[in-house]
Amino acid sequence: MSEPRQRVSLYRTVLHEGLRDDLPRYLNRDLLFHMWPVLHTLVGRTVRSV
Description:
By secondary structure, the chain is mostly helical. The chain is built from 4 helices and no strands. Helices cover 70% and strands 0% of the residues.
């Protein structure tokens, strides 16, 4: 996904609704770390604590 907003939306959806096997399949660790400053404001407390 080339659009940052689309990536953030996908990552948020996977973090909220994805199954355990979906995480490594759809999320890139380095991108997740890079996007975390934005994502942490969009996800719930449970996701942030995990």
